[in-house]
Amino acid sequence: xxxxxxxxxxxxxxxxxxxxxxxxxxxxxxxxxxxxxxxxxxxxxxxxxxxxxxxxxxxxxxxxxxxxxxxxxxxxxxxxxxxxxxxxxxxxxxxxxxxxxxxxxxxxxxxxxxxxxxxxxxxxxxxxxxxxxxxxxxxxxxxxxxxxxxxxxxxxxxxxxxxxxxxxxxxxxxxxxxxxxxxxxxxxxxxxxxxxxxxxxxxxxxxxxxxxxxxxxxxxxxxxxxxxxxxxxxxxxxxxxxxxxxxxxxxxxxxxxxxxxxxxxxxxxxxxxxxxxxxxxxxx
Length: 284
Fold this sequence. Notes:
- This protein is mainly alpha-helical.
- The chain has helices at residues 2-7, 19-25, 41-50, 58-75, 90-102, 109-121, 141-158, 161-176, 206-215, 225-233, 269-281, and strands spanning 80-82, 85-87.
């Protein structure tokens, strides 16, 4: 991906033979709950999509089916509506929608239902929120970035303009805040947003926002400048980026373990790749 996206070179590597992809595909449906952090199928299919596992790869599709079935069961109970706003964790449907769209499943009626639901549940400010106690004045950045990505991937797979428009509205929400600043004070909303981690899972940070914006074609918007400056400031002298505090626990541990080692400290491959991608998209 680095050779292609950063250097413009062709490559013919077999992604499926890589150690990380092989491990993610092994026993992907073993957990009873697809959403189990972070070993469940839900999280694995997002990582597999980002590592560009080919569409229709049987093990990836099986894991996506497992995750999709769990979401469909949850939707049987309807969605909560409080003060006229749907309280739904858009990151769940968004991650599943994005991965399924990448795996060639966009024509599945269940996937279509996820896209339609996200469009229907979008808040007036362009985001999503599952917090039942939220005032309704502002949605959740955490729940919004994955929803925007999923709708973008669905648009790419189907050409559905409504999905594209909803994703762009979410991008506008991030840009309105210059990705990490309070509208009221201009101060940093959350310092951890400035220290990207990988995988982000459902968590928001400036790198994940910049990646989504670049995929939406908004990477050169001047309102992303502060976040791009901050990203460049965090670059190591050797040109790479360190991993922020990871959301996942050590392999084999008892507290939110992962199934692969993404790198818990020091320079991180995926963070570095994505940082260079967004800088290139911004013309830097």
